[in-house]
Design a protein that fits this description.
Blueprint lengths: L2 E5 L6 E4 L4 H10 L7 E4 L5 H12 L3 E5 L2 E5 L9 H6 L7 H8 L1 E5 L12 H9 L3 E5 L2 E5 L7 E3 L5 H11 L5 E5 L5 H12 L3 E5 L2 E5 L7 E4 L4 H14 L3 E4 L7 H9 L3 E5 L2 E5 L8 E3 L11 H8 L5 E5 L10 H6 L3 E5 L2 E5 L8 E3 L3 H13 L3 E5 L1 H5 L5 H7 L5
Parallel strand pairs: 2-14, 3-13, 9-10, 17-18, 21-22
Antiparallel strand pairs: 1-22, 3-5, 4-5, 6-8, 7-8, 10-12, 11-12, 14-16, 15-16, 18-20, 19-20
Helix pairs in contact: 1-2, 1-7, 4-6, 5-6, 6-7, 8-10, 8-12, 10-12
Length: 410
């Protein structure tokens, strides 16, 4: 298990650029299954999860050529059965299901993470495919889907699920007639997928949370540059803020981070906005704020743990309510071991700030909790060891190098 050693108490400063968005890269790679034409993607982040999705589509027959941040995916998919290992490694790999059904009329894809029977996030995907005319069976931890023809229809999601919206956008692009997706997710990464699908020839219209897709008989190749990673941008801004330093993040889209920036401003941070860049200027310890995560344009759930780390060295008591992912509080035990005062009741965490955290030995339980522990280590007295580097590397490309360039001792 890899680890990072962080010497705390060093204010960060300087300028740093963000990668392309991981959560845009994954569905963009999967969308290549919808066509035999070449898909050229730019600003691809160097992340483990991207490597996993590329392995998945490569196993399905696509030819993948990668040159740094540039990616070419070409050729026809040759198999309708996804590799069990890669799908179970990462939930986003389940997105291959719809495109395979649209191309082959059938698909066999393992349930991600070995999901058990009962309510699961992927149920929204399966119900949407059934509404389009597919038959769904479960076989030994996998889903088999068959469809003689996929016919457009109206699908209303009970929750604006990002994954389900992306799945249905892709499959509807090759269905007969018009499909309407109501209450869909409008995260920037979903809109970026729509941009790619349009370049491939899909006819997609957006009205609020409603998507209307006129199916095509085939799609073509396309070239596309990914949007910037707003989660990485937010985390790097917080790295500056928690250490009391002035950090500028370049290559960002401020409009993708409005709710996050409002929370930072409410805590007392001064935020400067330039042409594609954001700068944080701390003014002492952060003041208390109340935040509830939710679907975009609400506060992003992935920035909840890093924000909590920042608030743990603030003044007064802040409250963060998780409205998306109930298991988001995996960072709490680690921060408590560093001296943070956090109480969790239901889906709300009450964070009473302390003047200083102390270094500790920690394990990153997941991507965003790992980022929170790393930020806490930057601000703590002494040395902090964060094990489970492979978790952090799933969402942050070369994070140790970027922090070092800002003055951290990592």
């Amino acid at each position: 298990m890899g680890y990072l050693l962080v010497e705390g108490g060093r204010p960060l400063s300087g300028r740093i650029a963000v990668e392309g968005a991981k959560n845009a890269a994954l569905p963009a790679c999967v969308a290549s299954l919808l066509t035999d034409g070449p898909i050229v993607l730019h600003r691809i982040p160097q992340l483990r999860d991207v490597s996993t999705i590329l392995f998945t589509i490569g196993e399905l027959g696509k030819r993948v050529i990668r040159n740094g941040p540039d990616l070419l995916i070409a050729g026809a998919p040759l198999s309708f059965e996804a590799n069990p290992y890669s799908v179970r490694q990462m939930r986003a790999s389940f997105l291959v299901l719809g495109p395979l059904v649209a191309r082959f009329g059938r698909a066999v894809v393992p349930l991600p993470g070995g999901c058990s029977i009962g309510p699961r996030p992927v149920d929204l995907h399966l119900k949407g495919l059934q509404a389009l005319g597919a038959r769904v069976e479960e076989r030994d931890g996998a889903v088999a889907v068959m469809a003689d023809r996929l016919r457009g229809c109206r699908i209303e999601l009970p929750f604006p699920s990002v994954g389900a919206t992306e799945q249905l956008l892709m499959v509807a692009s090759l269905a007969d007639g018009e499909t309407e997706i109501a209450n869909g997710a409008i995260e920037p990464e979903v809109i970026d997928l729509v941009s790619l699908l349009r370049k491939m020839g899909s006819n997609v219209e957006i009205d609020g949370r409603t998507f209307r897709i006129e199916g095509r008989t085939s799609l073509s190749g396309a070239e596309h540059t990914l949007i910037p990673d707003r989660m990485e941008a937010g985390t790097l801004l917080l790295a500056g803020a928690i250490t009391g330093g002035e950090v500028t993040v370049e290559g960002v889209e401020p409009g993708h981070l409005e709710a996050f920036l409002e929370a930072l401003s409410a805590s007392g941070l001064t935020i400067g906005e330039g042409d594609g860049e954001l700068t944080v200027v701390p003014r002492g310890r952060p003041g208390p704020v109340e935040v509830k995560t939710g679907p975009h344009p609400g506060f992003p759930t992935d920035l909840h743990p890093p924000l909590a780390a920042y608030l743990s060295v603030g003044r007064g008591t802040s409250r963060v309510t998780e409205g998306v992912f109930e298991r988001r509080f995996t960072y709490v035990d680690g921060l408590r071991s560093m001296g943070a005062q956090i109480a969790v009741s239901g889906r709300t965490g009450s964070i009473t700030g302390v003047k200083r955290l102390r270094g500790s030995s920690l394990v990153a339980p997941d991507i965003r909790a790992g980022a929170a522990l790393l930020l806490a280590g930057l601000a703590a007295e002494g040395e902090t060891r964060v094990s489970g580097l492979e978790q952090i590397d799933r969402g942050y490309a070369g994070i140790e190098d970027k922090l070092s360039r800002l003055g951290a001792k990592v």
